[in-house]
Every structure is written in structure tokens, then in C-alpha cells.
Design a protein that fits this description.
The chain is an alpha+beta fold. Helix content is 30%, strand content 34%. It has two domains: 115 residues, Ribosomal Protein S5, domain 2, CATH 3.30.230; 88 residues, Alpha-Beta Plaits (2-Layer Sandwich).
Length: 238
């Protein structure tokens, strides 16, 4: 919907139905990942009289290709961590993936290898190793040169031929990469591009303004990509 449609709908909700409406700009779904391999030993130790808590988990962290997600590998040998507590380490790591060190965005595309640890015959339990796993991931990602990722979308713009130059130039100005142009006849051209989602939040308004309402577009998520270095600080402090 365009800006006018949204404002009309909001006004109707307020005037006709008495509904209070709060609006805000869309937030871009950034992600974080590891920029380099690292390792870390997470230690959880708590003693408060009586039964305590003790768990140590050492992990290796490796970056994976974009879109690979999260992998957990168990390489513990010799019973350093009892088998029944291995899933608890994985659970703790997954909890830590929810907030990365840069902007508290979710962490993606990493492999975590659990290769060592320590247990106590009395004080070790599921919660101890869950906390150890969480601490291990937090320490490892801090050492792994964390990277900020942004969503990149496929953009297709159907535009009258006389506006092709202006619109393709505008797409490039939005950090977009033109993938091709197809003449569809009837004096219309289809522009195809890959463009960061962060640059497209008010594109409907701008496109209508530049073409007098004679163009249309579709936007679809394609993949995540590293944010250019000169924009990272701006994004994290916005």
C-alpha cells in the first residue's frame, strides 16, 4: 500500500471505530554472523551450600556460507561431558544465538563443535551445561570478528520506456545492482535488480512520484549479505 492508502486506513480506524493506532517505521531484520573461526571455554560454577552447579564446555566456532543456518557437532571423547548433558550444551548455544554482540540481532550461519569439557560427579546437571554452552557461544562470537548482515531482495520494476533511465539510476543510488532489462513491448521495460531491503521502505511513494503512478514493482527476499563497512556504525547507532 502507498502512504495515502495507509493514512486513509488509519484515519478510518480512528474516526469510525474509535481505535487508537500507533505507527512506526518498519525495522530491518538484520542478522549477525562470525567473520572468522574462534574457540572458547564456557564455565558455569555456582556454590551456595549443599548441592551446587558445575559445567564446563569448550567449543570451536566456524563461519558457514550464507543461508546455511546453524550446525552443532558433538566431538567429545572419553566422557569429558556425560552423553546425557550434550543436548543441554546445544540448548544453551541456541539460546545465545538469539542476540549477537553487535546490535543484539540473531546469529546465523555458524557451526559449533563441542570438543571438550568437564563435569562434576555431584554438581553437574542439565542446567549447568546449558549455562556453560550459552557462555561458550557468547565468548566465541566475541572473538570471531562478528559481522553484520542485511537482507537483499529481488526487485522487478515494470516502467514505461521514457522513465527507464531515471528508475535504473534511482535503483543504483539505493545500492542496487541491475541484473537486466527486458523490453516487453507496448513501450514498457522490466527492470530486474538486487537491492538491500533497508533502501526500499518507501519505494512505492518514490516510484509513484517519479513516474506519475505509471510504474509498478514487486519485491521479494533473496539472501543475506555483509553490510558495507562504512554503514555498520550508522546502522548500529540509529
Amino acid at each position: 500500500m502507498g502512504e495515502t492508502h495507509l493514512l486513509t486506513t488509519i484515519d478510518r480506524l480512528r474516526q469510525r471505530f474509535g481505535v487508537e493506532v500507533t505507527t512506526e517505521d518498519p525495522k530491518n531484520p538484520y542478522r549477525e554472523t562470525a567473520g572468522s573461526p574462534s574457540d572458547f571455554e564456557g564455565k558455569h560454577k555456582k556454590q551456595s551450600g549443599g548441592h551446587g552447579q558445575f559445567g564446563v564446555a569448550h567449543i570451536r566456532l566456524d563461519p558457514l556460507p550464507r543461508g546455511a543456518g546453524y550446525e552443532f557437532v558433538d566431538q567429545v571423547v572419553g566422557g569429558a561431558i556425560p552423553k546425557q548433558h550434550i543436548p543441554a550444551v546445544d540448548k544453551g548455544v541456541r539460546e545465545a544465538l538469539a542476540k549477537g554482540p553487535l546490535g543484539s540481532y540473531p546469529i546465523v550461519d555458524i557451526r559449533v563443535t563441542l570438543d571438550n569439557g568437564k563435569a562434576h560427579s555431584v554438581d553437574s546437571d542439565e542446567n549447568s551445561f546449558r549455562m556453560a554452552g550459552k557462555l561458550a557461544l557468547q565468548g566465541a562470537i566475541d572473538k570471531a570478528s562478528p559481522v553484520l548482515l542485511e537482507p537483499i531482495c529481488t526487485l522487478e520494476v515494470l516502467v514505461p520506456n521514457e522513465f527507464t533511465g531515471d528508475i535504473s539510476g534511482d535503483v543504483s543510488a539505493r545500492r542496487g545492482h541491475i541484473q537486466g532489462m527486458e523490453n516487453l513491448g507496448d513501450r514498457k521495460t522490466l527492470i530486474k535488480a538486487l537491492v538491500p531491503q533497508a533502501e526500499m521502505h518507501k519505494y512505492a511513494i518514490d516510484l509513484r512520484s517519479k513516474t506519475g503512478g505509471h510504474a509498478s514493482f514487486t519485491l521479494e527476499f533473496h539472501h543475506y549479505e555483509k553490510v558495507p563497512a562504512h554503514l555498520v556504525t550508522k546502522i548500529l547507532h540509529s
